[in-house]
Task: structure prediction
Amino acid sequence: MLDGLMMETPLTLTHLFWRMGRYFPGQQVITKTADGTHRYTLADHGIRTTRLASALQRIGVQPGERVATLGWNSYRHFEVYFAVPCMGAVLHTVNFRLHPEQIIHVMNHAEDAVVFVDATIYPLLAKIRPALKTVREIIVMDDLGNWADQDGTLEYEAFLEGGHSDLAWPALPENTAAGLCYTSGTTGLPKACLYSHRSLVLHGLGVGTSGVTLTDRDRVLSIVPMFHVNAWGFPFAVGLTGYELVFPGRFMQPTDLAGLIESEKVTYIAGVPTIMAGIYQAVKAQGNDVSSVRQATVGGSALSRSLIEGFDGLGIPILQGWGMTETSPVASIGVLRAQMDAWSDEERINRRLKQGPALPFVEMRIVDEEGREQPWDGVSSGELQVRGPWVIRAYYNEPRNAESFADGWFRTGDVATIDPLGYVHLVDRVKDLVKSGGEWISSVDLENAIMHNPKVVEAAVIAANHPKWTERPLACVVRNDPTLTREEILDGLRGVVADWWLPDDVVFLDEIPKTSVGKFDKKLLRERHGDHLLKTEP
Amino acid sequence: MLDGLMMETPLTLTHLFWRMGRYFPGQQVITKTADGTHRYTLADHGIRTTRLASALQRIGVQPGERVATLGWNSYRHFEVYFAVPCMGAVLHTVNFRLHPEQIIHVMNHAEDAVVFVDATIYPLLAKIRPALKTVREIIVMDDLGNWADQDGTLEYEAFLEGGHSDLAWPALPENTAAGLCYTSGTTGLPKACLYSHRSLVLHGLGVGTSGVTLTDRDRVLSIVPMFHVNAWGFPFAVGLTGYELVFPGRFMQPTDLAGLIESEKVTYIAGVPTIMAGIYQAVKAQGNDVSSVRQATVGGSALSRSLIEGFDGLGIPILQGWGMTETSPVASIGVLRAQMDAWSDEERINRRLKQGPALPFVEMRIVDEEGREQPWDGVSSGELQVRGPWVIRAYYNEPRNAESFADGWFRTGDVATIDPLGYVHLVDRVKDLVKSGGEWISSVDLENAIMHNPKVVEAAVIAANHPKWTERPLACVVRNDPTLTREEILDGLRGVVADWWLPDDVVFLDEIPKTSVGKFDKKLLRERHGDHLLKTEP
Result:
């Protein structure tokens, strides 16, 4: 074997940070704040971020130490995003919507040394502070600039002023840890994913060559919370092509977001289907001009036909990607191929309902319960397993690792098909499949079919216990029209799904309970309604 | 310090090769041949390339061994491009337009074990074969399929048939050597650049996020010879987004290329200015429909105003990149920024005359003769130095290494300015600058100004020896109108360049001699005309 003779330039966020200020100094960063709109440039961001890192050094933050954030999407959070990893420390973005006990767990598990917190979130932090074992310093980010240092906290702007702007950044090996995110913990305590500079950089390059290519002509509305898997990577990748960012601050209501799209002429939006549906409703209700948007992307849950049709009606193409906390997150993006231009609208919509081909350097396979790899025929299903340079090889400090990996592949816990062109289609979570008499029924397929009825706001299908079949599907439905009946729902499914898939019953709810990241909380639904059929069946 | 916990997936061409066949199996590869047009798909390419690698294993090619090609741009060359590096060996693409003595030198220096050669180039190889010390096997690629094994050579198709298509590719570390290219050797013996899998992959990702983003809707005409710095990376990066390739075979005349653009509906062309100017002339003369082309890119020499205006007239935007054999090659691409949309046409053309901002992860600086870094003000000039993951850290097996590197930077030998937005502008080669009385005069600026006259076909300015000023500029001009005089040329320069830059004389030539890669051979010009002023000055 012979090695090449190329420079060993490490792939680090430090380069992307330098590049932002050097090549795109005039690009705007816009944040909605309590008293208006904050605007500055990437050049400003560069100076302030450098001061911030210097100030963190001054209070003794060491390479490898964890620095936490509990923050809304804002320019200050964006500064912390680079100051911490580029100084060699680790950015731990805490999901402050977790249960307080879980927040205590993750912050103690991470051994966070310093915490950045938005003033509006501070009361939550103050409450759990006695339980935090490792936190030395709390720095409060206050829109209104009138934070009176209290409880020994520091105010962000005063803290930043204490740093200087001619810091020499350390030369970091590319495998240096840069970020720490926890899974949402729907099946137990959250688990930790420790990203490296290399993995975050390659994630950005991979997304950038996926066909969803952002340039300096784009203005991205940062909808995905910055505590949620690196806000899908948008803040880190700015340095590649210099696109502009619009941060909504804590004004995350769909009506606010729709207004921001119009006022700031946003070109690109990305978020979970629930919030995108909310934006659609807000645009229809408020009459916002959203003609500046050239592309919308959803992830986190499956894109529905009605959302595709809704956005098509707005003149905005919408597509979906797929990923997990464990995959940094983006692993696939459902861009349509040139050869599909000739297809019918219906065929193209069916393809857009899939999660798309894997990004470069991500590999996927589907395996059955015996570990046998299944063919890419669009029909055979199995557990989706992935590997690649931005997939975790282990959870951080975690005894439960063994169950999540197989022969160097990460086991996603999702059931999927892959078609001959490599488009993956998520059928269900392994644990959400309905196991009826030894056969599998996809709860997701049933949900999509039920939600096709315009009287349905949302629908979740769960595996309910059944005396004969072990499990049978139960539909939990939120309706916007009280005349909608169980029979109408079941009738709507006949001919669309196999007869034996028809839910045994429908329960109408005011709301489907959600997890902290906005997904259906099927665990809770099952606790509440899992025995429904035992009570109602004859 | 703390390391991330991400998978250690290597960045290799093997993944890109796998991805081409798995995700883009139906995309076309088109080659012009002696008796028509050869077409097949990336799926076909995958099967044949695998057989080829297997056949190479069968004749004993070892990991790390060098396998040479002397070939035109064709699907077979494209097969060798992947078979060799993916089996762990090193692809050495030989520039067969070098002087035979230089070809002997590079092939012995590389210690090539096996050679792939086009039948039409075989006579050249046969002549030098006795001087080749390490070549064990010669495999001939013949368009017409009627190669009678002679001189102990093997015929490509028969050789390939001997391999099988279920080869298990080796798992290669990403720093494994993948390719070997030699510089064109204008200043001495050619020097060798040994690329790694990692560097070629990152080059592809870097170009792919530069703003010149190819997708599976693109069809790229492969004009840059495959022996010339990896054909600028186009063949290797197909697996990222699945664009289609059109290979012209040995039909490299501008008239042929213009015809191919029309008949194959090419969307993207890239090449040196000379060949692009030829294509422009051919299109004008033949009336080809080139409306399918959405982008043209030049590199290798500076883009001229007249070429910009010519292509603008065809409705084809043209831009330039910059790079060297030592930079894999692409280091910068002159995409215009969003903020320049508001500029005047003149300002935008002036910007397009620069070589553009560096790609992500490439860094540039300019330093004066004392090694002091110069500001990015668009005025200060100095030697351009670069570093990055696809820049060589040393030439392969080369005693002259020390002079080419400084503190981890590669010294390009080019003199450049960089403006506040990071656009680099190459003023000249250090060795081509005219040193007149202690001041520098840019030969390139003078050439561009002279070539603005439509009666000028091409012009090269060299440093001619001068009794008083040491050196003075001498213009070597090819005219298409015999009425063009020395005085008219000098008058055209007055007011455009400083008076003391005006060439002392003009010599009219039938042709500017070119190097093997089509650049002006100023070394030869200086040998022939360097003493011109000593003879003519009073």
Summary: The CA atoms of residues 220 and 245 of chain B lie 5 Å apart. The first strand of chain B starts at residue 28 and ends at 33.
